[in-house]
Automatic annotation (TrEMBL):
InterPro entries: AB_hydrolase_fold (IPR029058), Plant_Biomass_Hydrol_Est (IPR050955). The keyword Signal applies. The keyword Nucleotide-binding does not apply. Keywords: Signal. Signal peptide: none annotated. The lineage of its organism: Bacteria, Pseudomonadati, Bacteroidota, Chitinophagia, Chitinophagales. Residues 1-43 are annotated as: Disordered. This is Phospholipase. It comes from the Bacteria. It comes from Chitinophaga caseinilytica.
Amino acid sequence: MSCGRDHEVTPVPTPGPGTGGGGTETPNPGTPPAPLTTGLTAQKVNSPKQVTDFLRYLPAKYNEDPNKKWPVIFSLHSVGERGDDINIVKRSALVVKAVKDADFRYILIAPQCKVTSWWDIPSLEVLYAQVMKDYKVDPSRVYLTGMSMGGYGVWSWMQAKPDRFAAAVPICGEGSPDKGCILKDKPLWVFHNADDPTVPVKGSRDMVNAIEACGGKLVKYSESATGGHDAWTRAYAEPTLFTWMDQYTK
């Protein structure tokens, strides 16, 4: 399930030590928060399990108001971005969008899986706790998305920890329909293409049907007849996606 290999984007320089490139850039305890590097930087997980590195995007105005809390999106990549080089994740679709869009108004957290691993909940939970502690996050506006392998990860994390997120956008993935009722009250916008040759569209259809069979009324499903495995380009270009997301809090 290799997504994203054909994305081409101008490399984003990774800052050096002291600006987020050589470790985790966080304020010093007991002192006023120091300004953090805005834009895209590479960061380390403080107490890593399988996931050791992540990309962090901070909006340009992040440091202007010390009391402002920001919505955050966790973005899970596909098989094509696995490895030991965090720079590979810079080509993931939502990271590309954040870098190019001067009006992108979310903290974006994009972790990386090792080449032999899969998205696992314990690693993601460690990262979640770190992000909630270290950044000016609005705890009621935490969102989750992912494509292909990342779509699987979205379904898994949502079904394991449904209270973590205000809304989620799984793209060309698959979950566990037998546990669909767990998500009957969660806002979800699911994307898939009918002619997907890599992850059969049945994966998304079965999840949506299972949630709706439990009485779920907050699940949206967007299926296109064509497009192959690339359902993420259309999903992240959808003009109402972020407006839809913003309406939900937890």
